[in-house]
Amino acid sequence: MTTHLDHIEIGLLVSRFFRAMDERAFPAGWARDHFTDDARMVAPVGVFEGAEAVRGTEEAIRRFARTQHMASDLLTDVDAASGTARASWNALMVHIHHEGEDPLFTVGGRYEAELRRTDEGWRFSRMAVEALWTTGRPPVLTPA
């Protein structure tokens, strides 16, 4: 049986994920607090496999001096053991090293996630982050 509480808990997980990016809050255990051990994340900065591999998002976010992510229009569907979440998002990002240039990079898009109920609560098992538009100079992505 699902309840309104399930939708609230998934919404909080989404908010905590984006907040962690902006606050650079990546303590030990961060990945497992958000993702299942077999999680897969597809993002503009790469594809990450497994909960610990998702920590690669930390490296990507540290390419900026500051970021502000905003998610909106969150829609969730849940059943007893799994769920989905979809939302729109915008991110304002300030480059670290772009002297003499506008340091602001802005991107907007959508994200879709599959979630699994675990003994510790809801966790992302799959996430796809898609950029639909950008303004400003994008970050330089170096191959891993």
From TrEMBL:
UniProt feature coiled coil, ranges: none
CDD domains for the chain: NTF2_like
Gene3D superfamilies, A to Z: 3.10.450.50
InterPro entries referenced in this protein's UniProt entry, alphabetically: NTF2-like_dom_sf, SnoaL-like
Domain SnoaL-like: 6-127
Top-level taxon of the source organism: Bacteria
Pfam families named among the record's database cross-references: SnoaL_4 (PF13577)
Protein's name in the database: SnoaL-like domain-containing protein
